[in-house]
What we know:
By secondary structure, this protein is mainly β. 9% of the residues lie in helices and 27% in strands. The chain has one domain.
Amino acid sequence: MSRSTENTGFRCAHCGNAVEPVTNGSYRNHCPFCLHSLHVDIRPGDRQNACHGLMEPIGLRQGKKGYQLVFRCRRCGSRGVNRVADDTQQPDSLDLLLKVMQQGCEV
Length: 107
Ligand SMILES: [Zn+2]
Ligand SMILES: [Zn+2]
């Protein structure tokens, strides 16, 4: 039995819900309830970014391993992507994913 240290739960800074770590071996940095994230990583999971701005979901795009959410940081404006979490506990809200997709944005 080994425990993953980088894949930990967190409390969403936008909606306040407790977010469990994903169970599919992937990595999640966004909230499944409101799809917001925090600008805390330089590389996924490293928590080395000092910005800590709220990252809004602005679109969906097709990645190599399925759909990815595209985020934009409200504070510094930089963008990030994270794989959609759909095969785990607390899957991403499908309603919100569809909404984000329909918004369509320049990704
Ligand atoms: Zn949230
Ligand atoms: Zn930022």
